[in-house]
Amino acid sequence: MVAKRQALKNVHNASWLFGHPVLRAANNATAQWVATMASPIYQKGGGWFAEFYGGVQTNDDWAACYIPVNEYPVSHFTDAQWSYYMTDTETMGINIVIWVHDAEDFDKRAEITQLGGHADLEKTAGWNAHEFTSATAGMFYYGEGTTGTLLTAGTQYTWSQFQSDQLFKDWVIYRVSLEYGWEASGTFDLAYLSEVKLNGVPIPLIPKETDLLTPYTKSIYKATVTDSTTKVTIATPTTNKKIRIHNVFMGTASATASTFELYFGTGTNITTDTTKGLALMTLDTDTVASVSIPYGDKGPLGLEDEVVSMRTGTNITSNGTFLVVYSEE
């Protein structure tokens, strides 16, 4: 009871209850803040979204939004709501994890997880919203120092069973997370967390100025083939995303001089639309064999769903190489 009284004191006297959300990811997954979104993703939330990409799933690939909690009593946490947009139907949705510990002994802790594939959790393409209550089922725990609980680790219960358990009822919540991943196989496409409310308190999904806002960069390499004067797509954005160019490398192994062209869109060549040009350089092994063009974080930005194309002005068969470093917004 001492721990419970201390926890209630923290709740009533603290200057904060829920802290600033933090994004985390592991292994094949990524998590980042995004603001520039296409319809219908911008229809909910305050303008910023937590973008989760689960990637190839091998049991331990996940993206999450961590929300610190100022030791809120387990018995007092009765409801939560969150909405999220999924670009494809998956075997799991975005689930809640409630992290708890003994307020008097931090060696004793556990994470109580909502099963991501539970039938009650929405997981279809498009907008989804979940309403969590004490009656929500599919909750299981793993932890340390849990001697005394009447619940079995790994077995599914309702949240109310944790609230009434002889051990967990006197513990407190130090973090709540919304997570995407942890599947055994398959690939989880992009999902966007847009709104979160915990115990009736809306959580602003807004990155701090100190948060890293630079998107994850990708790189792609492609060699020319005969006829290298025929336009070829080198980079295709994820649906509803835009490509931003950060660096371009072009090289040749041919003594025949040829222009190297890189541009947005599917035009026949770089002159098809002169506003789409990204790089144009004449290369050959006798003079200039390669070139690197850095654009930095604010490089050229394509249109939504617009590809990047490459070609040479003269057929140099397989002697040309292009490498593009880019991100998606």
Description of the structure:
- By secondary structure, the protein is mostly beta strands.
- It has two domains: 201 residues, Jelly Rolls; 112 residues, Nucleoplasmin core domain (Jelly Rolls, Sandwich).
- It is built from two helices and 20 strands.
- It has a six-stranded antiparallel beta sheet with strand order 1-4-10-6-7-9. Strands 2, 3, 5, 8, 11 and 12 form a six-stranded antiparallel beta sheet that branches.
- The longest helix has 12 residues.
- The chain is elongated, with a radius of gyration of 25 Å.
- The mean pLDDT is 93.
List keywords for this structure.
329 residues; mainly beta; Jelly Rolls; six-stranded antiparallel sheet; 2 helices
Short description:
This protein is mainly β and 329 residues long.
Write the layout of secondary structure elements.
Elements: H1 2-13, E1 22-26, E2 30-34, E3 49-56, E4 62-73, E5 79-86, E6 95-102, E7 105-114, E8 126-133, E9 139-144, H2 159-164, E10 172-181, E11 187-198, E12 201-202, E13 217-223, E14 232-235, E15 243-252, E16 258-264, E17 277-283, E18 290-294, E19 308-312, E20 320-328
Antiparallel strand pairs: 1-4, 2-3, 3-11, 4-10, 5-8, 5-11, 6-7, 6-10, 7-9, 11-12, 13-20, 14-19, 15-18, 15-20, 16-17, 16-19
